């Protein structure tokens, strides 16, 4: 049985519907990322789970128990906010145990729990410091410690890394994921950063305009996107999505009412193939990204190292049959390309 179930959650503010019939199940010990662009409903979903907002319709169940109308303090869910919400006049230790104090837990029990949690986060030697004496990463660990010490069945994290610089974000990604695995915690993590979602989560819920677009493993979102939106959102650079007609002869045997998707790394330079002109070359060290004009749309092509071609060069592009993804041009939904694979290879030696 799932530890958390969202059943047809809808949330409206007046005439504006910000969440539309969202349903998903979270298994115990999973790390789930809620991902999507600004305004997609990911933070609203987290606030509904926490009880900070009430859904317009739908139900939330924790361990099979309906908690839709249960006050936040009685849900048994901990939360880490983007702002950390640390009290400047309290020490690190007092900040971590603040929730226990509010609930009236005894000092001895608080001290025992603090002694277990602080070393996990590398805070055992910083317990007497104030938040102003800590780095951004250390403040993040204090906020996380306050959530962990509550021993709640689910920990919610609302963009907790967004205030950190890039190098510290990468460090904290690894730390949080390692801690979650070591303790077997169930975590739900809101982020707009696909790198965080794809590198940390067991499964990713990608939202768009308040709807759940796809809920699957990072591998599935990348290799088998459920829609053209997912294809265009996941990846850096994302999947190239063009009309079948844009592929010229390569799309001649495909249904013409389809969109065709190709990952940049699946496209190669060929002796013969789809003709194009290099518009731009971006060099990143290990690889380069070419922007190739194919007569209107541009295709991103990822090549290893620095290619011996530059802007203005004429190239021909090829790809293997298994590289092609098809989407309905009207709905954007994925269509099975398997039936067309034998005829859509455009890889030329």
Automatic annotation (TrEMBL):
One of its GO terms (molecular function) is ATP binding. Residues 4-234 form the ABC transporter domain. The keyword Transport applies. The keyword ATP-binding applies. Keywords: ATP-binding, Cell membrane, Membrane, Nucleotide-binding, Translocase, Transport. One of its GO terms (cellular component) is ATP-binding cassette (ABC) transporter complex, substrate-binding subunit-containing. It holds the Pfam family TOBE_2. Belongs to the ABC transporter superfamily. This is ABC transporter ATP-binding protein.
């Amino acid at each position: 049985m799932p530890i958390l179930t969202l059943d047809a959650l809808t949330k409206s503010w007046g005439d504006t519907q910000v969440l539309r019939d969202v349903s998903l199940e979270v298994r115990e010990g999973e790390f789930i990322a809620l991902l999507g662009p600004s305004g997609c409903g990911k933070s609203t979903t987290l606030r509904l789970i926490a009880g900070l907002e009430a859904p317009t319709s739908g139900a939330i169940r924790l361990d099979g128990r309906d908690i839709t109308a249960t006050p936040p303090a009685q849900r048994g869910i901990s939360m880490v906010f983007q702002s950390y919400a640390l009290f400047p006049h309290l020490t690190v230790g007092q900040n971590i145990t603040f929730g226990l104090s509010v609930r009236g837990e005894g000092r001895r029990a608080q001290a025992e729990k603090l002694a277990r949690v602080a070393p996990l986060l590398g805070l055992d030697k910083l317990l007497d410091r104030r938040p102003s004496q800590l780095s951004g990463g250390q403040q993040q660990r204090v906020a996380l410690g306050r959530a962990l010490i509550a021993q709640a069945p689910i920990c919610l994290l609302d963009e907790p890394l967004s205030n950190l610089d890039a190098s510290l974000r990468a460090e904290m990604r690894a730390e949080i994921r390692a801690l979650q695995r070591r303790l077997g915690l169930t975590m739900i993590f809101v982020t707009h950063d696909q790198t965080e979602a794809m590198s940390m989560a067991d499964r990713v819920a990608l939202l768009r305009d308040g709807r759940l677009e796809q809920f699957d493993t990072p591998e599935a979102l990348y290799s088998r996107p459920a829609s053209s939106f997912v294809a265009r959102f996941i990846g850096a650079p994302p999947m190239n999505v063009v009309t079948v007609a844009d592929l010229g002869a390569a799309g001649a045997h495909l249904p013409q009412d389809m969109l065709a998707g190709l990952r940049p790394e699946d496209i190669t330079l060929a002796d013969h193939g789809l003709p194009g002109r290099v518009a731009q070359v971006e060099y990143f060290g290990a690889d380069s990204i070419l922007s190739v004009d194919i007569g209107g749309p541009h295709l991103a092509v990822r090549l290893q190292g620095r290619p011996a071609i530059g802007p203005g060069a004429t190239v021909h592009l090829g790809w293997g049959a298994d590289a092609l993804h098809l989407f309905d041009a009207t709905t954007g939904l994925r269509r099975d390309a398997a039936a067309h694979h034998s005829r859509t290879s455009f890889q030329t030696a």
